[in-house]
């Protein structure tokens, strides 16, 4: 008797399984389950676009409707990856256009997207609905026009922190009058002014519009008329909040805000003048997400705003909030889950004269029981503060502390911050993401290796003393998936000794460390399932094996060496002239 | 321990290249004089001594700077780790703040126009920060941080390093591998031009630096042959059309 589950039944069951993690497990059970799963997966996520070829993905998941891709390593956000490194969207779009023309959604992060790509999307996917580009670059507003004009069922168009060649605001005018399906529009990263009348018409014919994020060029006055046309918005990103309005305009705007009963998320607020903050009071109690990180407003103007945000779960601010403001957050925002505090001084990290210290974060950790994700830029910190924070919040999942002064010790005891981070990793057993900074010795990494068992992503800068640091991490952190390191004094021994670990991780980035050329070659020779990329702007042919390389990026891959490497990326496959390693490593 | 690893100079210091220039500028490139190996000219591993405001508890084996000034923490590439959008926004805020302060001081400067330009950033797009640089024959453009440069010489040096020392950008943006561009020695083949706020392309170098950085939109390293007729300032519209780059 055939005891196998009929595939139709399995298909039906799988239609309830959304999580790709679960689906990955399903596909490992047996061949027939693998087959059924792959034929029914609609949402595909590839977190390293070079780990697998587009053709392989298209072949495996023929019913794909949504594709998410990530390209460049995270440190590309901070200009540590030279332009031209890679991460091109084109091969993927080309492959999908041919093999998966029913694709409806594309989400790309840190990839190079050209106008040609956007035109191809517009021409190839008849039912295209969602385009979300995060930290992408390479395209102009012309490409956006192509999407606007052709995608008649477009639901979402979001540009998050992209670098776009801005040729003007005309692109918005290309949305046809017949397009009424828009749910989300985010053009906050663009510079040029769009035609207000076109924007107003677009908004008024989009009854399903839930999220609208304007760019800075949209004036306060314009905002008023847009809000009146879309009081149903759930997410709003304002434009510039600083025009001088007359009394009538102000009261009309206030009225418009108070009509927005569904608003949960507010952002933008560039240049907000203190006298306009009260305009926001009416929406505060409903807000779960507030992004003030571009609002240059100082204390105490923020206080009244914060006290009204009793349902806030996510808060992004600048350090202008100061310890005082964070105390108010601690007492008013009891539902807070995520806090990010960004620096307000550009060049002068040492010039920040705002009164924000480690105390601010301590207050929030005391007052907000659900706090689980923290990103905190601060000039200096103390071990005691971290110990307190860890004790208060063992439920932390993400702790990113950026002490802006490299090598800064505990400013009260002058000791390294080892003990503070020890407390964090020891107490916060579910910690998945950690960024360390300040003065740290190898001890800190011994602690992290010992206790950080659930740690998946770790970022390190200007830290450690020796190879031991890396060895502790690679041998201790069982769940480690992404490791990124800059300006730390070690490399070879730990790397080569823990080579096998690298196959269990998505990627390793090391820049300005002491990884020698020879070690890179050795690693490449030993580990064929890894792409070991040396990213170095100076010629390597004549380099001795012992000399350090500028950057290495190592990632596991099924696709083998990639074919689009620029000159400054060296691998032993692309550059056989660099020879084999002559390094003797004990 | 690694046997062949060269421990460097008498101060047992490892020299290596920092991730300089590309995609973001460092104001001070630390230049070590002479030195053995291929690394004599590149930067060194930064240690606490490079950040003078911090007491140096670390091993005091970093060499003397041989005249080069230690980098401030704000001059290190990619530090603090803030995305470029945010960084540009901060820079603009800073410029506004200092511009406002200057105005409040009641100082009447010849550079009044510049500061006004920078403060008019609400609807304008003047971003004194990263701008794009393209070079004829090179498919992929680069970005350079104008804030990290103080003069034309500075900027020229960075661009020269970017495009002439190593030939990047050999890949077309469609992902096709193209042949590496063999650049000729001597920059006489190429000139540096820029597009200003009005959309005109001009030769770089004629206006004071500070005026330049507030009006430049992007840069182009152009073949000298194509640059003929590119007027310095006032151009007749017909010429402007002809000189509009691809």
From TrEMBL, chain B:
Basic and acidic residues bias: start-end ranges: 105-119
Localization (cell): Nucleus
PROSITE patterns tied to this protein: PB1
Main location, first listed in the record: nucleus
UniProt-listed InterPro entries: AUX/IAA_dom, AUX_IAA, PB1-like
Pfam families named in the record: AUX_IAA (PF02309)
Biased composition (Polar residues): 86-97
Region (Disordered): 55-119
Gene3D superfamilies, A to Z: Phosphatidylinositol 3-kinase Catalytic Subunit, Chain A, domain 1 (3.10.20.90)
All copies of domain PB1, residue ranges: 128-224
Alphabetical UniProt keywords: Auxin signaling pathway, Nucleus, Repressor, Transcription, Transcription regulation
Domain of life of the source: Eukaryota
Subunit structure, as described in the record: Homodimers and heterodimers.
Family listed: Belongs to the Aux/IAA family.
Reported function: Aux/IAA proteins are short-lived transcriptional factors that function as repressors of early auxin response genes at low auxin concentrations.
PANTHER family, sorted: AUXIN-RESPONSIVE PROTEIN, AUXIN-RESPONSIVE PROTEIN IAA17
Protein name: Auxin-responsive protein
Species for this entry: Brassica napus
């Amino acid at each position: 008797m055939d005891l196998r589950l009929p595939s139709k039944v399995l298909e039906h069951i799988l239609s309830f399984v959304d999580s790709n993690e679960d689906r990955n497990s399903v596909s490992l059970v047996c061949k027939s389950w693998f087959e059924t799963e792959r034929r029914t997966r609609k949402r595909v996520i590839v977190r390293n676009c070079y780990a697998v070829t587009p053709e392989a993905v298209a072949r495996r998941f023929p019913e794909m409707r949504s594709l998410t891709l990530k390209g460049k390593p995270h440190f590309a956000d901070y200009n540590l990856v030279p332009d031209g490194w890679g991460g091109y969207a084109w091969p993927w779009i080309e492959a999908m256009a041919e093999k998966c023309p029913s694709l409806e959604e594309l989400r790309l992060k840190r990839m190079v997207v050209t106008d040609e790509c956007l035109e191809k999307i517009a021409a190839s996917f008849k039912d295209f609905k969602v385009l979300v580009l995060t930290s992408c670059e390479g395209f102009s507003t012309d490409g956006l026009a192509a999407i606007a004009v052709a995608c008649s069922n477009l639901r979402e168009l979001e540009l998050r922190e992209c670098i776009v060649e801005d040729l003007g605001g005309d692109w918005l005018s290309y949305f046809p009058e017949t397009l009424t399906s828009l749910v989300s529009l985010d053009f906050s990263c663009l510079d040029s002014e769009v035609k207000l009348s076109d924007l107003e018409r677009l908004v008024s014919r989009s009854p399903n519009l839930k999220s609208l994020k304007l760019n800075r060029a949209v004036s306060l006055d314009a905002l008023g008329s847009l809000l009146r046309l879309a009081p149903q918005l759930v997410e709003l990103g304002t434009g510039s909040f600083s025009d001088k309005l007359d009394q009538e305009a102000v009261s009309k705007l206030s009225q418009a805000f108070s009509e927005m009963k569904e608003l949960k998320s507010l952002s933008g607020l560039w240049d907000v003048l203190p006298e306009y903050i009260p305009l926001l009071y009416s929406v505060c109690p409903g807000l779960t997400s507030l992004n003030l990180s571009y609002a240059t407003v100082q204390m105490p103007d923020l206080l009244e705003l914060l006290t009204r945000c009793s349902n806030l779960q996510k808060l992004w601010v600048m350090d202008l909030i100061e310890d005082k403001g964070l105390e108010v957050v601690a007492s008013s925002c009891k539902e807070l889950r995520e806090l990010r505090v960004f620096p307000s001084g550009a060049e002068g990290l040492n010039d920040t004269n705002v009164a924000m210290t480690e105390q601010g974060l301590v207050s929030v950790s005391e007052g907000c029981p659900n706090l689980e994700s923290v990103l905190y830029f601060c000039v200096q910190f103390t071990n005691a503060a971290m110990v307190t924070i860890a004790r208060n919040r063992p439920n932390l999942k993400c702790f990113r502390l950026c002490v802006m002064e490299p090598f800064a010790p505990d400013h009260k005891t002058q000791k390294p911050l080892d003990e503070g981070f020890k407390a964090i990793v020891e107490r916060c057993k579910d910690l998945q993401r950690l960024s360390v900074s300040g003065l740290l010795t190898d001890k800190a990494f011994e602690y992290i290796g010992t206790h950080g068992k659930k740690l998946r992503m770790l970022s390190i800068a200007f830290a450690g003393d020796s190879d031991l640091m890396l060895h502790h991490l690679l041998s201790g952190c069982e769940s480690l998936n992404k490791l990124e390191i800059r300006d730390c004094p070690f490399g070879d021994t730990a790397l080569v000794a823990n080579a096998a670990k690298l196959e269990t991780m998505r990627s390793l980035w090391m820049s300005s460390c002491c990884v020698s050329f020879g070690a890179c070659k050795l690693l490449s020779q030993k580990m064929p399932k890894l792409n070991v990329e040396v990213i170095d702007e100076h010629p390597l042919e004549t380099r001795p094996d012992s000399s350090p390389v500028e950057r290495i990026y190592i990632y596991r891959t099924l696709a083998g060496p990639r074919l689009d490497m620029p000159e400054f990326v060296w691998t032993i496959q692309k550059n056989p002239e660099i020879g084999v390693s002559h390094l003797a490593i004990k | 321990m690694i046997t062949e690893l060269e421990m460097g100079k008498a101060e047992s210091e490892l020299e290596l290249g920092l991730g300089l220039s590309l995609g973001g500028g460092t104001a001070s490139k630390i230049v070590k004089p002479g030195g053995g190996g291929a690394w004599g000219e590149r930067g060194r591993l930064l240690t606490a001594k490079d950040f003078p405001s911090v007491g140096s508890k670390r091993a005091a084996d970093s060499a003397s700077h041989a005249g080069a000034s230690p980098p401030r923490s704000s001059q290190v590439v990619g530090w603090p780790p803030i995305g470029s959008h945010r960084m540009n926004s901060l820079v603009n805020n800073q410029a506004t703040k200092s511009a406002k302060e200057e105005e409040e001081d009641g100082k009447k400067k010849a550079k009044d126009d510049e500061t006004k330009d920078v403060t008019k950033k609400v609807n304008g797009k003047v971003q004194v920060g990263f701008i794009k640089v393209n070079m004829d024959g090179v498919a992929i453009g680069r970005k350079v941080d104008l804030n990290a440069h103080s003069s034309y010489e500075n900027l020229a040096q960075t661009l020269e390093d970017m495009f002439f020392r190593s030939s990047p950008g050999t890949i077309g943006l469609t992902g096709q591998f193209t042949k590496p561009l063999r650049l000729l020695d001597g920059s006489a083949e190429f000139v540096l031009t820029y597009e200003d706020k009005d959309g005109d392309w001009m030769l770089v170098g004629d206006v004071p630096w500070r005026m330049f950085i507030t009006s430049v939109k992007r840069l182009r390293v152009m073949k000298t042959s194509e640059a003929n007729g590119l007027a310095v300032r006032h151009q007749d519209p017909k010429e402007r059309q002809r000189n509009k780059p691809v």
